Amino acid sequence: MLEILPETHNNLLAVRVSKALSIADFDQYRNLLRDLMGKYKEAHLYYEMVDLDLGEVNAVAAIENGMFDVVHGLDYGRVAMVGEKKWQEWAANLISPVKKKGVRYFDLSEKKEAMAWVQEK
């Protein structure tokens, strides 16, 4: 499930993902990012993962999302990934090289710090 957080404004997209992610969730996420990238020099992203079940993530949509990241990597500003599992930290490290400013991983207990960091000017 994709939830758009109220901190989303200007060039910041703040989302929480949980449980399962469908093709529609990935499409909505990419469309929101694409819109921000079209309006601003770079888009910042706060990506929080809570109770995310990797087995319930649509594999085709996840691959499409990975390709989107590769193509648009230079359009990202700060990216904060917030999670609770080791595989999420590994995923953040894996995608970091394709983002212009990389990805910084935070534990779920550090979500306030992550939000402050991603909003820094």
TrEMBL record:
Top-rank lineage group of the source organism: Bacteria
Pfam family, one: SpoIIAA-like
Name this polypeptide is given: SpoIIAA-like
Organism of provenance: Pontibacter akesuensis
Record lineage: Bacteria, Pseudomonadati, Bacteroidota, Cytophagia, Cytophagales
